[in-house]
Amino acid sequence: MAITTETEQCRSRLDSQAPKLHRARVVDDPAPNATGSRRARGWHVSYLQRVVPLDIIVAQLATIGGALTRTGEGEAVAYLAFAPVVVVAWLLLLTGSDAYGRRRVTIGSEQLRAVGRAAVLGVAVVAVLAYGTHFAVARSFLLVTVAVLVVGSVSARLGARAWLRRRRSQGRLAQRAVVVGRADSVAELIASLRDDAYQGLLPVAACASPVEGSDGPITGSMIGDSIDDVAVIGRPDNVLEAVTQCHAEVVVVAAHPDLSGPVLRRLTWALEERGIELLVSPGILDVAGPRLSIRPSTQLSLLHVERPARPRFHDLAKAAIDRVAAALLLLLIAPVLIAVTIAIRLDDGGPVLFRQRRVGVHGEHFSMYKFRTMVPDAEARLEALLQAQQFEGVLFKMDRDPRITRVGGFLRRYSIDELPQLLNVLFGQMSLVGPRPPLPREVDQYEPDALRRLRVRPGMTGLWQVSGRSDLTWEQSLRLDLHYVDNWSPLGDLHILCRTVSAVFRGSGAY
């Protein structure tokens, strides 16, 4: 609804401007948008109004905690006198480490690095000052203070990011964006921006060139048309007029031959004068930030994409951690496993475990264990269901599958039926985190891209589990799995495990 309203407003402003938009060019409109930078900073100011007071409180608590370690007569009071100094110094260190920078707010790893840099720099400064002034700072005070500062400031940022995520999921605190490029690229960018609302970019207008040979609505002049309910108000060379008409704060450019080289450079200059941000999509799918870097030169900067290779040590460490964790978890949840076993036996008297042939790393087959959630002859009934549903595709998913038992529905909703897969993890056939283990008949239908999923061990949970579970289409599941394979990291696995807890308790998408 909000997007449609923005589109209608842009269209109404455009009615009297359409002839001029056809004649205008990027370099012909020098009038800067003086309010652009102020509007763009609005969400950032709201974020800082929450995180800075939290950092001040953390610094005060850190000083108190450090002072409590000093039990000598008057020592605690003397160290408490440093509270104002610690507060000011910590805020300056965070600022110098760009912990308050707008670009780092939505990237959790960058926030962690910024706080870590501030802490290391602070310890270094204290060490230099203590050496130069011969003033001895108690190591216990320094250790506790720094530990509280780091843990507290990281927690404050996690809380502020959660607040920002909630606001942006409600359509608030977003920057108005003009999307520029060829019509099909613009459509993909608009869909991506809407799917990732946390980035805080609200498409309000598009400047698009038609797709050659298309007979759809994205041909001709395109002014007055729309792409996914976003008004098209000009060609790519009308971007400055679109920014002015729709009071945009960001311009997002898809790869476009008419916006490259000198033209893109002049657009950068013009947007800089207006306080408007410029984002350029390189057209690379599912490559995580750590794998991207800029290789500069005097005339042309190149985007370097690191190979998605993992050292052998990482694979060995991941396998060892998986097995140890699986063993500990099996011991901890033994009472739950016993209770589920009794419930299944009392429900229909059938077998407790369900073994199914799955395909693992490098195409090796293995038997995957699950608690049985369907009637004993579920596999025999599958063919009839496939024909009745006229199913075509790789994955078979059916809401309210008639083969599911009463107990099985509950087990599936909260993924309790997956717990026996800890045995597969213990045996080294699966991992705690990884792509979904496919069936052999699914692998037989794989296209070359999908086979890349088999380069790593399948997992009990993964990006597919925390991003929608069975509500996802095959294409969405495949894209998430390929993203995991190409961009694996230990922190990424930890993040997925934390998100899995929330996804399981919500119970959505499980059937």
Descriptive terms for the model:
alpha/beta, two-stranded antiparallel sheet, globular, membrane, Bact_transf, EPS_sugar_tfrase, transmembrane helix
SSE inventory with pairings:
Blueprint: H1 2-14, H2 18-23, H3 36-40, H4 42-67, H5 75-80, H6 83-96, H7 108-133, H8 139-169, E1 175-182, H9 183-195, E2 201-209, E3 226-227, E4 230-231, H10 239-246, E5 250-253, H11 262-274, E6 277-280, E7 292-295, E8 302-305, H12 312-332, H13 334-348, E9 353-359, E10 365-371, H14 378-388, H15 406-413, H16 421-426, E11 431-433, H17 440-444, E12 459-461, H18 463-466, H19 474-486, H20 490-506
Parallel strand pairs: 1-2, 1-5, 5-6, 11-12
Antiparallel strand pairs: 3-4, 7-8, 9-10
Helix pairs in contact: 4-6, 4-8, 6-7, 7-8
Could you please describe the fold and organization of this structure?
- The chain has three domains: 2-33 and 173-305, NAD(P)-binding Rossmann-like Domain (Rossmann fold, 3-Layer(aba) Sandwich); 42-169, no CATH class; 312-506, no CATH class.
- It contains 20 helices and twelve strands.
- The protein has helices at 2-14, 18-23, 36-40, 42-67, 75-80, 83-96, 108-133, 139-169, 183-195, 239-246, 262-274, 312-332, 334-348, 378-388, 406-413, 421-426, 440-444, 463-466, 474-486, 490-506, and strands spanning 175-182, 201-209, 226-227, 230-231, 250-253, 277-280, 292-295, 302-305, 353-359, 365-371, 431-433, 459-461.
- Helix 4 crosses helix 6.
- The longest helix has 31 residues, at 139-169.
- It comes from Kineosphaera limosa NBRC 100340.
- The chain crosses the membrane at residues 47-70, 76-94, 114-134, 140-160, 324-346.
- Pfam families: Bac_transf, CoA_binding_3.
